[in-house]
Specification:
Blueprint: E1 4-5, H1 6-12, H2 18-26, E2 30-32, E3 35-36, E4 43-44, E5 50-52, E6 55-56, E7 64-69, E8 98-99, E9 108-114, H3 117-124, E10 132-139, H4 144-152, E11 154-157, E12 160-162, E13 165-172, E14 175-182, H5 189-196, E15 201-209, E16 212-213, E17 222-224, H6 227-257
Parallel strand pairs: 9-15
Antiparallel strand pairs: 1-4, 2-3, 2-5, 5-6, 7-9, 7-17, 8-9, 10-14, 10-15, 11-12, 13-14, 15-16
Helix pairs in contact: 1-2
Length: about 260
């Protein structure tokens, strides 16, 4: 019978990301066949009885959806301030899904939601640098030089640089429409960058995450990803992970040479 690392099994059950699963295990909150385990690297099979915080867990049928977030909604499941959340747009049976990343309240566009903790980990891991593409409208005339500064990096907070790649699509009615690509996930990153160069955001919509496109999906609506899309997404992310590993090895080698 196929064996799987314990942290990966916990992630595949939708309980937590693989990294968070490691912490659960180290904290002694996981039992396998009635015994507490503290080593994330051990392997289990589907016949093993795995408990997290005394709750038996099992692999769920994986669900993957693409949602077009409308403006005015926050991405968390509940909000103590009573603001509207994206889950109000979803049927009851999909409200346990988690988002792979977030969009701020005023932003719109593509969110991937799933109960697959492994996919969420892959899509949001900072070392992998998964691209996210945004269609942005900003006040005034954003120039090529502004975009060059974005590529070099702009300090949006003390000691914190933000980067973006972009292409200008049009100038119209005193505004600039452009596509910006991010490989980071800093809070309100695009809004802060454009504010610093004097061009506040008028509209911000995520149109692509990894190789998944928003397409013609209407605001507030969702669709299920088909098997081919899911398979292609995992292949795409696997290739990005390979690039990240190669890059990290090269950086490590340079540091050793210094």
């Amino acid at each position: 019978m196929e064996q799987i690392r314990l942290n990966k099994f916990i992630a595949s059950c939708g309980v937590a990301s693989r990294r968070a699963a490691d912490e659960l295990i180290k904290e002694g909150r996981v039992k396998v066949n009635g015994k507490v385990v503290t080593e994330p690297g051990i392997s289990v099979t589907k016949k093993d009885r795995v408990e997290v915080d005394k709750q038996l867990i099992s692999e769920e049928n994986k669900i993957y959806i693409v949602f077009n977030k409308p403006p005015g909604y926050i991405t968390t499941r509940e909000d103590e301030k009573g603001r509207k959340t994206i889950y109000e747009n979803l049927p009851e049976n999909l409200r346990t899904l988690r988002t792979a990343g977030r969009l701020d309240k005023d932003s719109t566009g593509l969110l991937i939601l799933t109960n697959d903790g492994e996919l969420i980990q892959k899509l949001t891991h900072p070392k992998v640098k998964v691209p996210k593409i945004y269609r942005v409208v900003a006040e005034g005339k954003v120039t090529i030089n502004d975009l060059k500064e974005f590529q070099k990096g702009i300090e949006i907070e003390k000691g914190k640089k933000a980067y973006a790649e972009g292409v200008i699509l049009e100038y119209e009615n005193g505004e600039t429409t452009m596509d910006l690509i991010l490989y980071q996930g800093l809070n309100r990153q695009i809004r802060k960058m454009l504010e610093i160069v004097g061009h506040p955001v008028v509209m911000l919509k995520r149109i692509q995450h990894a190789n998944i496109n928003l397409g013609a999906l209407k605001k507030g609506k969702f669709r299920f990803m088909n098997n081919k899309e899911v398979d292609n997404l995992f292949k795409y992310l696997k290739n990005l992970e390979k690039v990240a590993i190669i890059t990290e090895k090269k950086l490590y080698k340079k540091k050793k040479e210094i």
